[in-house]
């Protein structure tokens, strides 16, 4: 198949805005339009000029700002709508009026309450009126997928003769199915005598989750424009998503046989802008622009990606505007990914056994925490490295904090190889824990500083606690990390006691600065 240009018509600012709750101000529409221009969208449908004074102003502002994309306004087959659209587009470097009328029996009978002949007349009149205002007129047969074939042939031929250069066939209610929807294009293009004078366009809704599939099928049957939105925003379940269509066309170029002029590296920033303006967040598993679209957590996939990225990726994250793909470390990860991350952090292992030991600790942590961050790995090796025999080691903690009761803690330590237990009350869980430890250690120290840092993100974060103890002018800083902050505190206290016992305040003066 020879390669043709596919026109990308973005309707985020019109059909996208029809999502309940997605209304945009003029300034927001101009901001998004500038991003769409950078993305190299061919046509930006900026609004429905007759809808409100605000939408008129938005279409006008976008038309006056954007130079590299055609700006379009929607208009019913109503004189006032068409005139208002023409007025809003006056300042456009390239303007298009998109006029439409429904052609399905159900819409004509119940909604328009018009006879088919009247609909044809109205369509011809609308296209001619629009052509008097702009050189570029698109005509849509609303609810095309539920319209009668012969009637569509008739109206399409008439509006092309009247001056429409784009014929849009919407699956307005998202009822279409790829094979049938695509074949509708093929049959119409083959049957309408003047079809070659117009570009056929698909406009699909996602009520059955088929909007992108239907659009692609239309392209395979001759459509050379697709109407779509960023993030698939749009009326009800949304429109076909621009990013999915563009990347499907690009990734499967040899099969699709068409090209777009989209600069895909702006896809992710545009998606983020639309999400933040509308307040509609992108779901993590959304194709192309979802946070997980280029993230791998499973060990087998990570191993494959590390060996040869294409084993599990059909496109590059960088090509659509992500910084890079992501190997997320979690409980499904394997040694290959964990080692690769350690390598990137500059941590090497002396032997396979040392790596295996770190990996075992990693899995234990991953059972407690969904995602393991770089800081977790660093904490993991810091703990593991320091394996010289210690005077004290933390073994277990039982804390009780209950409204109306004095907090108390029961601590189990291993002291010089012996298990020792103690309990104490305190003003809080941490205070009770420290008192219990002290009742074992009798260190004679003074607590100079206690600080908690969340070293990783979220409520499941690893907390790192620093405890500064002083005795006879000597100061040590002990640290401890755990997903439970009281356990991290106990570990930090015990670490500080060991440093004192080992005279580490002299050997590790840098720790005094913490
Ligand atoms: C499939 C789509 O996405 S179509 C676009 C949908 N978007 C919108 O509707 C958003 C903007 N709409 C609006 O602001 C308003 O609906 C307006 C300003 C366009 C019209 O408002 P109103 O004049 O109060 O009419 P209302 O919305 O209540 O009803 C629509 C009227 O347009 C008629 N109509 C609907 N589509 C068309 C059309 N393509 N061509 C001509 N007339 C049409 C309806 O039959 C109805 O006519 P009636 O009042 O004689 O019964
Ligand atoms: C106005 C038309 C193109 C539309 O949005 C639809 O039919 O879904
Ligand atoms: Mg629509």
Automatic annotation (TrEMBL):
One of its GO terms (molecular function) is 2-isopropylmalate synthase activity. It comes from the Bacteria. Pfam families: HCS_D2 (PF22617), HMGL-like (PF00682), LeuA_dimer (PF08502). GO terms for cellular component: cytosol. Keywords: Acyltransferase, Amino-acid biosynthesis, Branched-chain amino acid biosynthesis, Cytoplasm, Leucine biosynthesis, Manganese, Metal-binding, Transferase. Mn(2+) binds at residues 15, 203, 205, 239. One of its GO terms (biological process) is L-leucine biosynthetic process. It is an enzyme of class 2 (transferase). It catalyses: 3-methyl-2-oxobutanoate + acetyl-CoA + H2O = (2S)-2-isopropylmalate + CoA + H(+). Residues 393-514 are annotated as: Regulatory domain. The keyword Transmembrane helix does not apply. Its cofactor is Mn(2+). Residues 6-268 form the Pyruvate carboxyltransferase domain. The keyword Lipid metabolism does not apply. Transmembrane segments: none annotated. Pathway: Amino-acid biosynthesis; L-leucine biosynthesis; L-leucine from 3-methyl-2-oxobutanoate: step 1/4. Homodimer. Catalyzes the condensation of the acetyl group of acetyl-CoA with 3-methyl-2-oxobutanoate (2-ketoisovalerate) to form 3-carboxy-3-hydroxy-4-methylpentanoate (2-isopropylmalate). PANTHER family: 2-ISOPROPYLMALATE SYNTHASE 1, CHLOROPLASTIC-RELATED (PTHR10277:SF9), HOMOCITRATE SYNTHASE-RELATED (PTHR10277). Belongs to the alpha-IPM synthase/homocitrate synthase family. LeuA type 1 subfamily. This is 2-isopropylmalate synthase. The lineage of its organism: Bacteria, Pseudomonadati, Pseudomonadota, Gammaproteobacteria, Cellvibrionales. The gene is leuA.
């Amino acid at each position: 198949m020879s390669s043709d240009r596919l026109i990308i018509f973005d309707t985020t600012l019109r059909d996208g805005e029809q999502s309940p709750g997605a209304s945009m101000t003029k300034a927001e529409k101009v901001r998004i339009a500038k991003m769409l221009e950078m993305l190299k969208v061919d046509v930006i449908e900026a609004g429905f000029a007759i809808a409100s004074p605000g939408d008129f102003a938005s279409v006008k502002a976008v038309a006056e700002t954007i130079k590299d994309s055609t700006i379009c306004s929607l208009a019913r087959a109503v004189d006032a709508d068409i005139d208002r659209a023409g007025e809003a587009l006056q300042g456009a470097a390239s303007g298009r009026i998109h006029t439409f009328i429904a052609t399905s029996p159900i819409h004509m009978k119940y909604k328009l309450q018009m006879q088919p002949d009247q609909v044809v007349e109205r369509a011809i009149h609308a296209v001619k009126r629009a052509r008097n205002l702009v050189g570029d007129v698109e005509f849509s047969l609303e609810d095309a997928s539920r319209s009668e074939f012969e009637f569509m042939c008739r109206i399409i031929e008439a509006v092309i003769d009247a001056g429409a250069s784009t014929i849009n066939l919407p699956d307005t209610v998202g009822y279409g199915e790829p094979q049938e929807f695509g074949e509708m294009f093929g049959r119409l293009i083959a049957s309408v005598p003047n079809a070659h004078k117009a570009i056929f366009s698909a406009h699909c809704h996602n009520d059955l989750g088929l909007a992108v599939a239907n659009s692609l099928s239309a392209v395979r049957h001759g459509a050379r424009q697709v109407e779509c939105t960023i993030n698939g925003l749009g009326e009800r379940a949304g429109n076909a998503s621009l990013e999915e269509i563009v990347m499907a066309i690009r990734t499967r170029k040899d099969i699709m046989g068409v090209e777009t002029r989209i600069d895909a590296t702006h896809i992710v920033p545009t998606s983020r802008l639309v999400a933040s303006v509308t307040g509609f967040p992108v779901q993590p598993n959304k194709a192309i622009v979802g946070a997980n679209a280029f993230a791998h957590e499973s060990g087998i996939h990570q191993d494959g990606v590390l060996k040869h990225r294409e084993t599990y990726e059909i496109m590059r994250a960088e090509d659509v505007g992500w910084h890079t793909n992501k190997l997320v470390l979690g409980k499904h990860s394997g040694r290959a990914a964990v080692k690769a991350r350690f390598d990137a952090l500059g941590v090497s292992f002396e032997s396979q056994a040392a790596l295996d030991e770190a990996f075992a600790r990693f899995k234990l942590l991953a059972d407690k925490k969904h995602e393991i961050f770089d800081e977790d790995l660093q904490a993991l090796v810091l703990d593991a490295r320091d394996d010289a025999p210690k005077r004290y080691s933390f073994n277990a903690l039982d804390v009780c904090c209950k409204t109306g009761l004095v907090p108390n803690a029961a601590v189990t330590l291993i002291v010089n190889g012996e298990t020792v237990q103690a309990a104490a009350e305190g003003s809080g869980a941490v205070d009770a824990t420290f008192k219990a430890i002290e009742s074992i250690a009798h260190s004679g120290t003074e607590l100079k500083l206690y600080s908690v840092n969340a070293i990783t993100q979220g409520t499941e974060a690893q907390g790192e606690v620093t405890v500064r103890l002083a005795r006879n002018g000597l100061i040590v800083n002990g640290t401890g990390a755990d997903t439970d902050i009281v356990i991290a505190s106990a570990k930090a206290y015990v670490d500080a006691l060991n440093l004192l016992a080992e005279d580490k305040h002299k050997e590790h003066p840098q720790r005094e600065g913490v």
